[in-house]
Design goal:
five-stranded mixed sheet; alpha/beta; 44% helix; single chain; 337 residues; D-Maltodextrin-Binding Protein, domain 2
């Protein structure tokens, strides 16, 4: 798996920060003569980087005739710009963003990568123990008023006769800021992304509300993978077999990450964790989020969830469509079905 960092002057990506990661993902053995290249955009600190490291060390991509060329981005938005401009072929991104892009005419496809979501976190000694207890308290929400986890939580609360938008005091902010506020006792509860929740959990916080349970409480058979591999329809039409081989390779990596603790010892240097407790929570939450069901089952639950989000978020969140685009999910010919 040859690795290179790419930069295209004059594109929308000129403001993005690129760093070469060739040394990080350098291969120890040559590629097959006819390896096909897939250009992938990543964030070095994300869990996708962990999966790619497993793929590298076990030679899965090499054996499948795949040459992975990596470009690192400073933010998720930079990765989206890279994909839309054609600078990369594939990224890991948000299901809801893909749905909105398709509603606005974008030709993107989605394949499930992780159902890992955040949670409402409180201190271990907090008097809050259930969703209704948030009435009259300060709830900090990472991402803003249109964050998908917040809208899912609000929908669940409304079903219990609780309007958190009116009955709780809401604060919005960036995920790191929300985590720090939680540590400093400036808020009563926080809804944050899964990795920040994992860090709090390792420091003695507990889950008041698990967002995976909230999703099933809304009538879903299982939590939806809200994060996935994203690529264009054009790329899929031209490289269908390559995509299928890549997805099969990621499935092999997931199998190892699910069953082998020793594999995680090798991944640990990439995880930026300072203690065993955080490491163990990261490992558990990553495993928990790995999709294990057919794409058709994911799609069925995604349709139900999209309707909930469309009702609460409106066109500002999901675009002009009120139903999930039937062509959003990529269906491999030989993998995941």
């Amino acid at each position: 798996m040859a690795v290179m960092a790419s930069r295209r002057p004059g594109t929308l990506l000129s403001a993005a920060v690129f760093t070469a990661v060739a040394a990080w993902f350098a291969w120890l053995s040559p590629l097959p003569a006819r390896a096909e290249t897939v250009r992938i955009g990543i964030q070095k600190t994300g869990s996708f980087a962990w999966q790619l490291d497993v793929i590298r060390r076990h030679g899965f991509a090499r054996d499948a005739g795949i040459d992975i060329a990596l470009t690192e981005f400073a933010s998720p938005d930079a990765g989206k710009l890279a994909l839309n401009s054609g600078a990369v072929d594939l990224i890991v991104s948000d299901w809801l963003w893909v749905a909105r892009e398709r509603a606005l005419g974008g030709k993107l496809l989605f394949y499930p990568y992780s159902s890992g979501v955040g949670a409402v976190m409180v201190r271990s000694d907090s008097p809050l123990h259930r969703l209704a207890d948030l009435r009259g308290h300060v709830l900090a929400v990472a991402g803003g008023p249109l964050d998908k986890s917040w809208l899912i939580l609000r929908a669940s609360a409304l079903r219990e006769g609780i309007d958190l938008k009116r009955e709780a005091t809401l604060q919005y902010g960036a995920p790191p800021l929300i985590m720090e506020k939680a540590k400093q006792s400036g808020i009563d509860a926080s809804l944050n992304f899964w990795n920040f929740c994992a860090r709090l959990e390792a420091q003695g916080f507990r889950q008041l509300v698990d967002m995976r349970s909230v999703e099933t409480g809304l009538g879903l058979a299982q939590p939806v993978a809200l994060i996935g591999f994203v690529f264009s329809e054009q790329f899929a039409e031209r490289h269908h077999e390559l995509i299928d081989r890549f997805l099969a390779v990621t499935g092999k990596a997931n199998d190892i990450m699910t069953t082998s603790d020793a594999e995680w010892d090798a991944i640990r240097p990439l995880m930026q964790v300072d203690d065993d407790a955080t490491f163990e929570v990261f490992r558990a939450r990553t495993r928990e989020g790995m999709p294990r069901r057919p794409v058709a089952a994911e799609e069925a639950d995604a349709r139900a969830l999209f309707k909930v989000l469309a009702e609460l978020g409106g066109t500002e969140l999901v675009g002009p469509s009120t139903e999930l685009d039937a062509g959003l999910y990529y269906h491999p010919a030989v993998h995941g079905e």
